[in-house]
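thought: fold this chain, then report.
action: predict
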Amino acid sequence: MSTMQFTTSAPRLAYTVTEPRHGQAPRRTFLLSHALGCDVTMWDALVAHLSADNRVVCYDQRGHGRSEAPAGPYTMAQLADDAARLIDELDLGAITWIGLSMGGMIGQELVLRHPAKVQAVVLANTTSFYPDEARVGWDQRIATIAQGGLASIVDGAMLRWFHDGFRAAHPEVVAYWKQRVLACDQAGYTACCQAIRNVDTTARLGSVTVPALVIAGELDLGTPPAMARAIAHHIPGAQLAILPHASHLSVLEQPQAFIQTLEQWLASH
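observation:
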């Protein structure tokens, strides 16, 4: 297990670095960025796989896990600049980004704002834009949290994150992630909701020049496949993969399919 470390720059971000197990120079350096309400442990299975011959860096977003939660609201640009700061502080060079949901939104903004820092992007279960009705939904979620705390939205999150069959088969996984949401800094979580509400990269995605893999979950209600198709359509040369029997947290529901899709794409990029 990699040791949690912290950036020296502010806001302090908690991160882990897992070096290649084979002891040789890393094939790639991956930077993994989690979903809203999650933390670095979302990536444990993927880290175990990728670290055979790659360096893998994971970090807690501001307001999550052990990272600091400065006053909000946040913008997606600020969250992308957090990632850029981490890349610089650790002198990682150009990284391969894997981001899911909020992490995928940050990845889009990162490659647009800091293209030299990114070698390739994997954008999973995410969107480049929310229509007005969805933004109203985010406003309602923020208002609900203000009234009743994170406990008032956590059960709804579990329904979106995991499909019925998975929740029935893996209640311990659902219980773990419910606790992770409740452990978030409430103000930091809300500030991230405000950044997500305002995500808007669609019109700029045509300038992305690095290889891109866009992953969707067939059953994802929060960021349905149509949102992934829009991203893949706008990024030149992007590849789209829709994982069957996966809802929002596809990397947890279908870890082998996620890894297989990723490896097939990496082999040609």
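thought: worth noting. The first helix runs from residue 44 to 50.
final: tokens above.
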